Amino acid sequence: MKTVLITGAAKGIGFYLTSYFLASGYKVFMVDKDPALHTSAKQLENSFKKENIIKFQTDITSKHGIPIIKSTIRDEKLNIDILINNAGIGQHSTLIDTPSDRMTDLMNVNFFAADNLIRAVIPTMIENGSGQIVNVCSGQVFFNLPTWAAYTCTKAALSAYSEALYHELKPKGITVTTVYPFMVNTGFYNDVKGQTLGGKLSMILLPLYSMKPEKVAKIIYQAVLKKKRREMVSMLNYAGQLINTFPPLSNIVGKISNYILTK
């Protein structure tokens, strides 16, 4: 039986990813700092084998978070075949209005925690000559929208890291999949109110233009099974890529979004 470790597994994309892997017969190691993890695990136990669900509530950015996960893997005699770095936090503010300690928090959760978990499982994967790392980045790296840049910077770092890691680990028999979701209708945006009328409208209308977490999770799940190098998730991300190849066009988009989203 293969084992997949999923961070941010209590809700949203992580929760649905857990259900898809359980349905396929995987053992799932659910990790989240949210106490809702226990309720979510209980809900899944009603539909799947309890022994295939391992839940672990911890802060993966804390000094003891990753070491405890490593010791749990050892104590439970788990072999992590797939690591999905799904946990993440956001930030909605201009760069100059984002406190430096908040930037540190963003980097710790969105980048360094993923790096530390990869370092925790990669020695065994290299020894086995197999395994898969899945890093959930963000489609916003293709748009660089004002008021979202603090968050985007951290996901862009993870994107560059992940894309390079693919080439470094491929000769060792390990697959790295980089995922770029766009807007997903989860609790991720619950506290985002918007600074302007345009920003507020974008949040109010979010359910109309965003994707459902269960659909995004299904796309990611299928990409993992296919061992894809890159999963763009939404066609809008291809549009963002295209816009960035034409500086005049990206300049126009930047000016418009800045006018709409900032005071």
Major beta sheet, strand line-up: 3-2-1-4-5-6-7
Label the overall shape.
Answer: globular
Give the proportion of residues in helices.
40-55%
CATH topology: Rossmann fold
Radius of gyration: 18 Å
- Average of pLDDT: 93
* Class derived from helix and strand content: alpha/beta
Count of helical stretches: 10
- What is the total tally of β strands? 7
Strand residue content: 5-15%
Uncertain parts: none
Topology as a string of helices (H) and strands (E):
EHEHEHEHEHEHHHEHH
Q: What's the N-to-C terminus distance? A: 53 Å
How many domains make up the 3D coordinates?
A: 1
CATH architecture: 3-Layer(aba) Sandwich
CATH superfamily: NAD(P)-binding Rossmann-like Domain
Largest sheet: 7 strands, parallel
> What top-tier CATH class fits best?
Alpha Beta
Description:
- The protein is an alpha/beta fold and 263 residues long.
- The protein has a single domain, classed as Rossmann fold.
- It has 10 helices and 7 strands.
- It has helices at residues 12-23, 36-45, 65-75, 100-128, 149-169, 197-204, 206-209, 213-225, 235-244, 247-261, and strands at 3-7, 27-32, 53-57, 80-85, 131-136, 174-179, 230-231.
- Strands 3-2-1-4-5-6-7 form a 7-stranded parallel beta sheet, sandwiched between helices.
- α1 (12-23) crosses α8 and α4 (100-128) packs parallel to α5 (149-169).
- The longest helix has 29 residues, at 100-128.
- The N and C termini lie far apart (53 Å).
- The mean pLDDT is 93.
